[in-house]
Specification:
The complex is a heterodimer of chains A (170) and B (159). Chain A is an all-alpha fold and 170 residues long. Chain A contains eight helices and no strands. Chain B starts with a helix and ends with a helix. Classes of the chains: A mainly alpha (170), B mainly alpha (159). The interface between A and B is large, with 42 and 38 residues.
Chain lengths: 170, 159
C-alpha cells in the first residue's frame, strides 16, 4: 500500500531536519530510525495531529524531541551508555572533500557529543535549524532565558574545544 | 569572534538521510497491517537485519497506541499476567483439593441452630436441677446449729 501523499510530502520536506536533529541527540542511527519511523507512523494514523499547526517543522521537531527524550528514559539500562556513545566519533556531518574540513567536522561531531544533551539540542536548533530562541524555547518547552543560556554555555564549550583546530584552519 | 565561529559551524552540512529510509518509513506509515506482520514474523525467531529488527519495537509501540486502553495496559507484559492467572488457578485448585470450600449460608444456619438447640437444652436441664434442689430443701427441716460458745461452756460444766 502506498503512503498517503501528505505523509510523503511531510517526509520530503522535513525528514532531513528531523534526521540531523535526532542523530545529534541520540547519537545512534538505529535509534534515529526508530524514532523517525514511529513519528511518521503516528502522523499517518492521526492526520488530525497536524490540523491547525502553524509551523510544521517546529511542530515535528518538538514531537521528535519528545520522542527522543522518551526513548532515552525508557532505555534506562542504556542510559549510562549514551554519554559514552555521544563522545564516540559519529558521522553527523556530510563528508568533506577537503581533508582539513573533514577533520574539523569530525572534531565538531566529537565536541557536540561532549555537550549535555539539553545544550546540544539548543545548539543544534540554533545553528543548523537557524531558529530563534523563542522558537527553540517553544519546541523544547523551556523558558526563553534557559534556551539562551544553554546556547551560550554550549557554544563556549565548543569554541574552547575546537579553538586549536579552528585557529589552524583559519 | 563568536559570530564568525558560529558562521563557521553553521556552514558545516549535516549528513543526509539514508536513501532507503524513505521507502521503509513511508511503507510502515501507510498501513497498520504492515507494521503488525513484521512483529509477528519476528516472534518466529528468524534472524533479521539489525535496523529492521530494531524497527520492530517501534511498530509494536505504534500498534499499542491503536488498541483499547485495557489492552494497552496488559500489552507490555503478557507473560507476567499469564503467570499471575496461573498462580491464582493453582491456589484455587489446591484450596478445592484440600476440601476447604467456602462455607455455604445454609450450612452456617444449620450449624447455628444446632448450637442454639444444644444451649437451650443445657439451660432447661440446669433450670430443672435448680427447681428440684429447691423442692428438696423445703421438705427437710432446718438443722439446729448450736452456738459454739454456749455448747462449749455446757460441756465444760458437765465434766
Amino acid at each position: 500500500m502506498a503512503a498517503t501523499p501528505d505523509i510523503a510530502r511531510l517526509y520530503d520536506e522535513h525528514a532531513a531536519s528531523l534526521f540531523a536533529f535526532l542523530l545529534n541527540l541520540l547519537r545512534q542511527e538505529a535509534d534515529t530510525f526508530d524514532v523517525m519511523q514511529d513519528l511518521f507512523f503516528k502522523l499517518g494514523r492521526r492526520p488530525a495531529l497536524l490540523r491547525g499547526v502553524r509551523d510544521e517543522r517546529a511542530f515535528l521537531l518538538r514531537l521528535a524531541h519528545n520522542a527522543a527524550i522518551d526513548l532515552i528514559r525508557r532505555q534506562e539500562t542504556r542510559q549510562r551508555n549514551y554519554d559514552q556513545l555521544a563522545r564516540q566519533s559519529l558521522a553527523l556531518f556530510a563528508e568533506g572533500a577537503d581533508p582539513d574540513e573533514q577533520v574539523f567536522r569530525e572534531k565538531l561531531a566529537e565536541a557536540l557529543g561532549e555537550l549535555p544533551s539539553d545544550q546540544r539540542a539548543v545548539v543544534h536548533l540554533k545553528l543548523w535549524e537557524k531558529l530563534t530562541f523563542d522558537a527553540i524555547a517553544e519546541i523544547l518547552e523551556i523558558p526563553l532565558n534557559t534556551a539562551a543560556s544553554r546556547y551560550r554555555y554550549g557554544l563556549d564549550k565548543l569554541r574552547a574545544r575546537l579553538r586549536p583546530i579552528y585557529d589552524e584552519i583559519k | 569572534m563568536n559570530s564568525e565561529f558560529e558562521k563557521r559551524l553553521q556552514d558545516q552540512p549535516m549528513r543526509e538521510v539514508p536513501s532507503d529510509w524513505r521507502a521503509r518509513i513511508l511503507e510502515t506509515a501507510s498501513s497498520l497491517e504492515k507494521a503488525v506482520s513484521p512483529l509477528r514474523s519476528d516472534r518466529s525467531g528468524k534472524s533479521r537485519p539489525r535496523t529492521a529488527r530494531r524497527a520492530v519495537p517501534t511498530a509494536e509501540g505504534a500498534i499499542t497506541d491503536a488498541l483499547p486502553w485495557w489492552r494497552q495496559w496488559l500489552w507490555p507484559c503478557p507473560r507476567a499476567w499469564a503467570g499471575l492467572a496461573a498462580a491464582w488457578i493453582l491456589i484455587l485448585g489446591m484450596d478445592l483439593a484440600a476440601g476447604k470450600g467456602p462455607a455455604r449460608p445454609a450450612d452456617v444456619r444449620t450449624a447455628l441452630s444446632r448450637q442454639e438447640l444444644r444451649e437451650l437444652r443445657q439451660q432447661q436441664q440446669m433450670l430443672a436441677e435448680l427447681i428440684f434442689a429447691g423442692e428438696t430443701a423445703e421438705a427437710e427441716p432446718p438443722k439446729a446449729v448450736p452456738s459454739p460458745r454456749s455448747e462449749r461452756s455446757g460441756n465444760q460444766a458437765a465434766v
